[in-house]
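Hey all, sorry for the wall of text incoming. These are the two entities for the joint prediction.
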Amino acid sequence: MIRGLYTATTGIVLGVARQALIAHDVANANTTGYKRAALPLVPSSRLDVQRLATGVPEPVANDVRARAGPLGTGVWTEAPVIDFGQGPLRVTGQVLDLALEGEGFFQVRGTQGTLYTRDGSFHRDAAGNLVTATGQFVLGDNNAPVQLPEGEPVFAPDGTVTVNGQVAGRLGIVQFAQPNALQRAGENTFAANAAAVPAQARVRQGFLEASNVDPNRTVVDMLRVARSYEASVRLVQVQDETVARLLEVGRVG
Amino acid sequence: MGISPLSLFTVAASGLQAQTRSVEIIANNLANASTPGFKPSRANLQDVRLTEVQPPDVELGGGVILGAISRDFNQGVLTTTGNPLDLAIEGPGFFEIQLADGRRAYTRDGSFHLDGGGRLVTADGLIVGPGITAPAGFQEVVVAADGTVTARQADGTTTPIGTINLARFANPDGLQSFGNNLLVETAASGPPQVGAPGTVGRGQIHSGVLEGSGVEIANEFVNMLVAQRSYSLSLRVLQTLDEMQRQANAIAT
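and here's what came out:
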C-alpha cells in the first residue's frame, strides 16, 4: 500500500525533472547553436514479491514460499542526453557568421579554459582576434586564437580563412568519440571530459545554425509530461484516501 | 528538497524576457528601415547553465539570457539624391560628429546640411568633423571624394574651407549606440583612427548620394516571427508549470 505511494512519488519528481529540461529547451528555441536535451527513462529496480509464508516453518532447506511475481517501483532517470542533431542553417550574410554542417564544434577559449560551441556568431576584437559574442577567443587548428588581419575574411568549407588572398589560419573544428563527453557550460558552449579529435564538419560563411529545438515536438512532450504528472498526483491522492478509509474502518469506538 | 514546478517558473520567464528583448531590437530595426546609414542590431541569445543536484541527479538549465547585442555593418545600398551635402561612405569608415558636450560620436548617416551660421551639421544640427563653415555669399559647397570641402563664390572663385575625415575602428562591433543614429567609442571598439577618405580601412566619400538602411525587412520579419513564436512557447510552458504546481498543492489539502 505505502509502497505504491513511493512509486507514484517517483512519477511526480521525474515529471518535474523532465519539465525542467523542456522549459530550458523552450527558453532556448531561438538560441543560435543550441542543442536540445532528452531525459532517458529507465525503470527502477524491480522487487520480487513473495506471498507471505503461512504455516510454513522457517528456515527451510529450499525456499518454498510461492513467488507472487515482480513489482515495479516506478521510473527513474539517468543524466540527460544532449541531442547534437543538426539545427537548420539560416542565412545572415555577415562575413563573420559561421555555421557548421555535420558533426563538429568550434573551439573557444575564455576564463573557463577550452570550450566547444556550434554558435558561430563571431566578431573581430580590437586586437584583430576572432572572438565569440561574449569575447572568448576562437581557436585555430594550431590551438592558438585565430588572428584576422585588416580586410575581408573568406572562410573555406574546411575552415581555412584567407584575408586579401593570404591564408590567415585555419579553424580548429573538432569532435568527440563519445557523444556523452560533453556537458553544458553556458553561453552556448560545452565542456568536455575527453580528448577532442579533428572533425570533418563543413564551415559555411554567412550562415548561423539555429536551435535544434522542434517547437511542435516540444509542446507534445510537455503536454505528455504534464498529463503523466497529473496521473501520479492523482495516484498519491487515491492511495492517501484509501489509507484514510482503512483507518476509518479500523477505528474502535 | 527537490525541485517543484514553481522553481521552474524562472526558466520559462527567462524565455519570455529574452524574446521580448529580441522583439524590441527587431522592432527598432524595422522602425529604421528607411533611416540613411542605419545598421541593424541583433540579439545574441545564450543558454544559462545552472547546476542543481537533484534526487534524479539531473543537471538543470537556467534558461536563456541576452548575451550580447551585435550590429551588422554590411555596406548599405547607395542611392542618388542630387543634394551635394548628402554624403555616403563606400567602405568601412565613419563620419565624426561633435556632440553638444564636445565629445565625439560616429555615424554612417551623411544627410548633412548647412545651418543658419553656414556650418556643416547633421540632420539633428550637430557639427560634422572638426567644424566646417561656409563663407558668406557662397554659391555652392562641394565635397570631393577625398573629403575636401570647397565653397564656390558667385564670381566663380573656389576656396577650400575644410576636410571631412573618416574614422575607422579596429572593432566596429564594440561601438555603443548613442541614439539618433550615432555611435560612441568603447574599450571594446578601440580608439578612433581618423584619417583621409580613400586610405585603407576608411572608404571613399560620395557626394549627392545617401547610404540606405542596412535593414532587410524580410529577414527582420522572419526573425520577429521566430521570436514571437518562442515567446508563445515559453508562455505555454509557464501555464503548464502553473497547472502542475496547482495539482501538487492539492495533495496537501
